[in-house]
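Hi R.,

As promised on Friday, here is the backbone we talked about, encoded as structure tokens. Could you run it through your design pipeline when you get a chance and send me back a sequence?
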């Protein structure tokens, strides 16, 4: 089918939940994708932080092909080897003792909220049910995760949400301390607010929050759906802040492009979940787990990729800051950690994203629409950065003239 016909039929058949760009992507390799007309794009959005290793990385493709030929799916009434292999890697390289597998970030956060509530009720009694979250946070689209998402634009039309949630300002530990009551169950935070605008907290913020939660006897849930699996230059972002959460959620980059999510926690907390208290039909699917094992093995191999992420990030940030210095009226701030980077503009960013796409660069937006979001694969090279900067500068220069 021709591109225009694919777009026209898709618009007719799909429930209209997305505002899609008018291109039809057919294949991808590394940091590049091609549409049905053969046009090439440099992908600095990476499936919104999913394609950690780029498109169709060889080791992941081979692992998926091998697993598909062996076993595609069985239920969690049985054990499988890929699940065990993935659990061992995650637990060995994190704070956690136990893991639960699911299919997405929002599902992981739903499970984390349930786990926190049932654990606290068993430990302290039925009145421990409230959550504390932050404004500008994003934790997912299902009702529980949406209820702890601190952006009203996502709430409209779905009220009433869960009423047992308090919102405070991000990067303000005292606000969390003041919001805690004898009904508080847990605090849920992103180490870096990604969708909310790539908001990076002060170095001591999470440590203060960790201490506050410990003193109050409540749980700290870290949503690392977007920051996890090497995105920030560490396997998990909490490692930058010298803390450990009680519960952590993962998804996006975990499967290298194949859908999978996970909840990680400590032994005592994990025991609050008993058979029939929580489940997922497709959670821990053998193919998804095999893909995640290959992804993690690649990310962790000799520590090279994590170290490289930090180095290429510095180069990218330097180039972005050079643009900021050249166009101070258009670019207000560059912020981020690793390859989760935001460019704060002085006006709406949507037209720049569209023009970048037309010129062969895929990027995204975040926050209130004035932030450009860059979440490229960790394998980008200096030449890729230079190409992206050249396209971006061309568009910003045209927009400024």
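Update: got your reply. Pasting your designed sequence below so it's all in one thread:
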């Amino acid at each position: 089918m021709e591109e225009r016909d694919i777009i026209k039929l898709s618009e007719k058949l799909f429930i209209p939940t997305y505002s899609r760009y008018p291109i039809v992507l057919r294949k991808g390799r590394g940091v590049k994708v091609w549409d049905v007309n053969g046009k090439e794009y440099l992908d600095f959005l990476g499936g919104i932080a999913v394609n950690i290793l780029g498109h169709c990385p060889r080791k992941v493709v081979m692992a998926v092909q091998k697993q598909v030929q062996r076993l595609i799916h069985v239920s969690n009434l049985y054990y499988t080897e890929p699940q065990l292999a993935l659990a061992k890697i995650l637990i060995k390289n994190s704070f956690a003792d136990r893991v639960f597998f699911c299919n997405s970030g929002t599902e992981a956060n739903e499970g984390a909220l349930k786990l926190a509530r049932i654990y606290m009720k068993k430990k302290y009694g039925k009145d421990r049910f409230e959550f504390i979250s932050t404004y500008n946070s994003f934790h997912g689209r299902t009702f529980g995760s949406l209820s702890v998402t601190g952006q009203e634009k996502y709430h409209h039309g779905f009220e009433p949400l869960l009423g047992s949630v308090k919102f405070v300002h991000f990067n303000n530990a005292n606000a969390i301390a003041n919001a805690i009551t004898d009904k508080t169950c847990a605090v849920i935070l992103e180490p870096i607010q990604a969708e909310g605008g790539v908001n990076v907290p002060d170095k001591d913020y999470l440590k203060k929050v960790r201490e506050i939660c410990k003193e109050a006897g409540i749980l700290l849930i870290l949503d690392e759906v977007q920051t996890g699996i090497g995105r920030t230059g560490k396997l998990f972002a909490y490692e930058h802040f010298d803390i450990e959460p009680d519960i952590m959620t993962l998804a996006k980059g975990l499967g290298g492009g194949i859908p999978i999510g996970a909840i990680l926690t400590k032994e005592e907390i994990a025991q609050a979940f008993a058979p029939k208290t929580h489940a997922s039909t497709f959670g821990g699917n053998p193919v998804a787990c095999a893909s995640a094992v290959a992804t993690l093995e690649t990310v962790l191999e000799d520590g090279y990729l994590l170290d490289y992420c930090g180095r290429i990030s510095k180069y990218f940030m330097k180039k972005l800051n050079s643009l900021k210095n050249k166009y101070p009226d258009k670019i207000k701030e560059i912020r981020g950690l690793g390859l989760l980077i935001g460019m704060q503009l002085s006006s709406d960013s949507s037209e720049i994203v569209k023009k970048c796409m037309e010129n062969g660069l895929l990027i995204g937006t975040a926050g209130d629409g004035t932030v450009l979001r860059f979440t490229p694969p960790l394998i980008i090279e200096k030449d890729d950065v230079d190409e992206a900067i050249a396209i971006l500068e061309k568009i910003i220069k045209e927009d400024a003239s």
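One thing I noticed while checking it: Residues 304-326 form the longest helix (23 residues).

Thanks again,
M.
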